[in-house]
Amino acid sequence: MEERTKYKKCEDSLTEITKLLQYRDINGQNRLFGGRLMEWIDEAAGVAAMRHAGGNCVTLMVDSLKFKCGAYINDIVVLIAKVTYVGKTSMEVRVDTYVEEKHTGIRRAINHAYLTLVHVDDEGRPKFIEYGFIPEGVNGLAEYEGAKKRIEIRKHRTTEGF
Ligand SMILES: CC(C)(COP(=O)(O)OP(=O)(O)OC[C@H]1O[C@@H](n2cnc3c(N)ncnc32)[C@H](O)[C@@H]1OP(=O)(O)O)[C@@H](O)C(=O)NCCC(=O)NCCS
């Protein structure tokens, strides 16, 4: 059994990506194309996971991807990815997406998603994550405890075939 002597906090891998919505990001209904946002979410989660693990990671699954409201041309869209849980080879990453109001800087949540990523070796096989995770604050601890329940639900869903 491999043991850990090194740890990282959420802030060590925190990843923020900012996009200005352009015509190439817009769908036929003049709003942000959901597939484009999913690409950015995957990218943000991947960077956070790689920063925590210190190596390559692949996306195993995405769940609880909920679009609360739309975003439109020339909107500033901000994605924030945070590691919420670290297992032996896998990590859960939460990505929150906001539209930033230009005049006030206030951010309105439009989406949140949980992703599971796996640290892999050069052959793409799961690899032990050397860095443990230290959850911090009330929110960090709640996310950490929630992650344990979400992992069980994911495994149950996989067993049930959906
Ligand atoms: C990700 C991948 C390497 C995992 O390989 P695997 O042989 O299934 O790995 P394992 O069964 O050893 O599981 C690896 C980790 O995922 C977790 N996991 C696997 N299935 C899971 C599920 N249904 N729910 C939750 N966690 C799960 C395991 O618990 C383990 O985590 P842990 O080590 O922290 O406990 C492999 O499935 C793969 O290559 N998938 C394609 C990835 C890809 O191409 N993504 C898109 C581009 S990035």
Description:
The strands form two sheets. The protein has a five-stranded antiparallel beta sheet. Strands 1-7 form a two-stranded parallel ribbon. It has one domain: Roll (Thiol Ester Dehydrase, Chain A). The protein contains three helices and seven strands. With about 160 residues, the protein is an alpha+beta fold.
How would the blueprint of this fold be written?
Layout: E1 6-9, H1 10-13, E2 15-20, H2 34-53, E3 57-67, E4 76-86, E5 90-100, E6 107-119, E7 131-134, H3 137-160
Parallel strand pairs: 1-7
Antiparallel strand pairs: 2-4, 3-6, 4-5, 5-6
Residues 58-60, 87-90, 116, 118, 120, 124, 126, 151, 154-155, 158 line the site of coenzyme A.
Q: Which blocks of ≥5 consecutive residues have pLDDT under 50?
A: none
Provide the succession of SSEs. EHEHEEEEEH
Side by side, the strands of the main sheet go: 2-4-5-6-3
| CATH architecture term | Roll
Helix content: 25-40%
Annotation, overall tally of beta strands: 7
Query: Gap between N and C termini, in Å?
Result: 32 Å
CA-atom Rg in angstroms: 17 Å
Which oligomeric state applies? single chain
Q: Could you say what the CATH topology is called?
A: Thiol Ester Dehydrase, Chain A
For CATH, the homologous superfamily is named as Hotdog Thioesterase
Tally the helices: 3
Taking the sheet with the most strands, its summary is:
5 strands, antiparallel
Ions, cofactors and other ligands present here are: coenzyme A
